[in-house]
Amino acid sequence: MQNILIVFTVLGLSTAFALPAAAGFGTIQRISILTSDCTDCGMTLLGQVNLKICGGAPERCCSVVNIGNFDSGMFNEGAIDNYSGGHLLEGCFNYNLSNSTSASDLSLTVYHEGSDGGQLDWVEIHTESRSVRCPMGFWMDSFSSMKVACVEQ
Question: What is the pTM of this model?
Fold first, then answer.
């Protein structure tokens, strides 16, 4: 971790204090999702994926509702979809992960809604300086959710 060094001179005596630099993972810039490459693992417009990411400030969590935005070009079997910008990432774009210094400090919950289920291999969260991968690999259908552990890339 980088430190900021401050030197005080009082009555001719010098004392140095090390203050920790800004902590955390930075701000979210992109989210990538790999849809599993198996029969019927992709989703049509009848399914939607929502994300809740926790580990930041000033709000503890951010969320993205319907990250695929009912785009039929998303969630195809074996394909990686990348989402960036305020329109697609909603409240998670530029969300500050300042309360997270390691991947284990992050929390990701993936929600599925709708009649067309699907399976995702992983969700990646990218900041300007770091990335974490949150492995999944479980079938989601109807109204289901899954809390996922993440590992740093």
Answer: 0.83
